[in-house]
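Hi R.,

Here's the chain you asked about this morning:
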Amino acid sequence: MRCDGVNRREFLTVGALSALGLTLGDALRASASPEGQGGKSCILIWLDGGPSHLDTFDPKPDAPSEVRGPFGTIPTRIPGIALSEHLPRTAQVLDKVALIRSLTHELGNHDTGSHFLLTGHRPNPALAYPSLGSIVAKESKSRGALPPYVVLPEATPALGPGYLSGAFGPFTVGRDPSQARDLALPEHLTLERLGERRAILETLDGFSRRVEATAATKSRDAAYEQAYRLIASPEAKAAFDLSREPQSLQERYGRSKLGGACLTARRLVEAGARFVTVVDSGWDTHQNIAKTLPDALFPGSGKLPALDRAYAALLTDLAERGLLESTLVVLMGEFGRTPKLNALGGRDHWPRAGFACLAGGGVRGGQVIGKTDASGESPIERPVRPEDLTASILTLLGIDPATEYRHPDGRPLRLINDGTMLKELI
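And here is the predicted structure, written out as tokens:
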């Protein structure tokens, strides 16, 4: 839970099929409501809540203690660049990473900041913009069993399809990614019987389309088609099954929820998914970061050790499998944290300075882009805006950010306005 108390919408819990065997389709259709394979793939690790840049990827070891914070630093594979002492594994793979230390904007609210970073647009109460994952889903030509856009474990509002058809919304698996292993039909329902029910639905839907050919009908059709392909495909179901991975590899990723989600993400892109977002909540650290970020309360309690294991393991695993060049890995959150510790030993929202990490997908690793001042308050070199970052991500994935879509009312809308590709990345 963030400090603003926002409850995340549960789009889908996989495995809860009704006796009709169609609840998965209903859930996909519900998640596809606008209200509510070819090319590279992308894994986005979203640090929900706003990770502190000063206590992770942009430490200031020479600053006063109230700025420096409680943690020391460690050297990395990039000469002269240090990270928090609680990111030792990440430090050893930083040669694969382009680290942006000058991400900046003005929106210090969780929802508005998330929307800005995940869509490349400032929030507009009159227009919901599509997330990066939904854009990739729309551009994907794949008709495979796996959905092109998956969120693990559950989506935040800014990860939705916006003004696009709900068919391009995320497929989510609920709070526990391992539940996706229950993608199975009830014992009394065979694929043959499901096919018969599907044929009946298609007949009824054909009548419905003749009566009312609406965007909602198209979203429903796409949702049921996706549900049927997923249920009928052993390969698609297997992609969610972590038990097929060696115990040693699961240990490398870590037994945390984040570790399991990152390993699942690797399996999904390996099986053909185009965009997988891993949501890691709990980064809204307004107090006592000395205990909440490291493993100070009990083993496995800290945010930093879990991130360190999962992130480093993901990059290494993708590289060992020959998948890193075809898989862009992005690590970011909605903003950074205040340069000075507050009275509770935490840091508050600070959009003027933050970080993002990009690796794989053709990115030139082993470099740092941008720089903040001595207290981490503001960029003093190469400021990077959300529009620039999202335009760069789309470009790296082979999508022109100047592409125009049509709003349902006919208006042309450019994917990203004013964003500039970061040439340093390639």
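One quick note: The chain is about 30% helix and 15% strand.

Cheers,
M.
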